[in-house]
Fold this sequence. Notes:
This protein is α/β, with parallel strands linked by helices.
Amino acid sequence: xxxxxxxxxxxxxxxxxxxxxxxxxxxxxxxxxxxxxxxxxxxxxxxxxxxxxxxxxxxxxxxxxxxxxxxxxxxxxxxxxxxxxxxxxxxxxxxxxxxxxxxxxxxxxxxxxxxxxxxxxxxxxxxxxxxxxxxxxxxxxxxxxxxxxxxxxxxxxxxxxxxxxxxxxxxxxxxxxxxxxxxxxxxxxxxxxxxxxxxxxxxxxxxxxxxxxxxxxxxxxxxxxxxxxxxxxxxxxxxxxxxxxxxxxxxxxxxxxxxxxxxxxxxxxxxxxxxxxxxxxxxxxxxxxxxxxxxxxxxxxxxxxxxxxxxxxxxxxxxxxxxxxxxxxxxxxxxxxxxxxxxxxxxxxxxxxxxxxxxxxxxxxxxxxxxxxxxxxxxxxxxxxxxxxxxxxxxxxxxxxxxxxxxxxxxxxxxxxxxxxxxxxxxxxxxxx
Length: 433
């Protein structure tokens, strides 16, 4: 493996209090920001809103769309591509205002108005791509290309039949979007004079609304609860795994009076003693999540499902360096049982330093490129990982390790060590050591 440092001997733990104080300041600043703002700035996924699904004739320019929405007062809308790239499909989400039916129609019309302005759709012409059967029938009755004005009943039936054929062809054979009026020429059931009239009187918008739906506040609350549950289960799973993977021995309860409360307290302390490495790793990971959430609040990022995905990724990544360091601590405990715990942990951090820089550094450069080049949709996701990787790297060194050392020294277990189970050491051998 590539090594940046040969036999490094830096006293990392000397700076632990500097980073612990820095962490408290960041957590307090983030907590104050969340308190002032009344919590995270939830996205449509969590607080409800209107989602409008659009299809474009060509590859959509998301920056142009975002600028058009901003000019119409919809700057807080979310824009996200979905489906296959060749489908040219986009979801635009807006905050919910009013009741569901009212919000759906209002948001849909506001987005259409912004898109018409952005793509210079003529206001005085029929938008054939966004017209339903009823509106197209009314337009044909008004244009009357077949000269059926004197026969109202026949005209209504005939033009409705033609409108149904056109919309059926558009929706089922052209994916909801006509590319040119030439596609109507020769279409069975559509007279050439009708196609010619539509070419003169109508317009083919480069974007069409596929569907619109409302995400209600109740669904948003369920998603919030599921996101919290997913994060909590991830932390609990890591606590259990690391507690089993890196158990300790030699732990005894602190002295105290016998009683129900004292007994429960002593049992709790005993469990922490046995799983202090897992507890320290989860504390460090929880610390990383808190600081990252604080940065998201301070910089007013929207909290949505992309951010939840980034936080869950961070939870997995953050504990990685901690496990590597603890694994090296376990190896050194077997070899250097007489060395002080603080010196042994510091030695382990130095031995894994090159690996930490390689892993964290390359990952950081990757998410940094994603932050600058990934576009607006991935901006929040990438920012969360940028902050999380930096914080997670230093928390493995300056938070998790000091927690283990401080707990063991405060509890008076100077000889507390990791079990060396892989070698199958006998209980008698461990007792003799």
